[in-house]
Amino acid sequence: MLSLEFIRANPDAVRRAGELKGEPAPVDEILDLDQEWRARQHRAEEIKAEQNELSKQFAKTRDEALKARLRQMADAAKSELALADALKSELDDLLLRVPNLFHESVPIGETEAENVVIREWGEKPDLGFVPRTHFDLGESLGIMDFERAVRISGSRFAFLVGDGARLERGLVQFMLDVHTREHGYTELWTPMLVNSAAMVGTANLPKFADQLFKVEDRDLWLIPTAEVPVTNFHREEILDGDQLPLKYVSYAPSWRTEAGAAGKDTRGFIRMHQFSKVELVKVTTAETSLDEFEQLTRDAEDILQRLGLHYQAMAMCTGDMGFAQYKKYDLNAWAPGLDRYLEVSSCSVFSDFQARRANIRYRPSRGAPPRFAHTINGSGLALPRTIDAIMETYQRSDGMIALPDALKPYMGGVELIGAR
RNA sequence: GGGGAGGUGGCUGAGUGGCCGAAAGCACCCGCCUGCUAAGCGGGUAGGGGGUGUAAAGCUCCCUCGAGGGUUCGAAUCCCUCCCUUCCCGCCA
Question: Which residue segment(s) compose the domain that A214 sits in?
Answer without folding.
Answer: 112-417
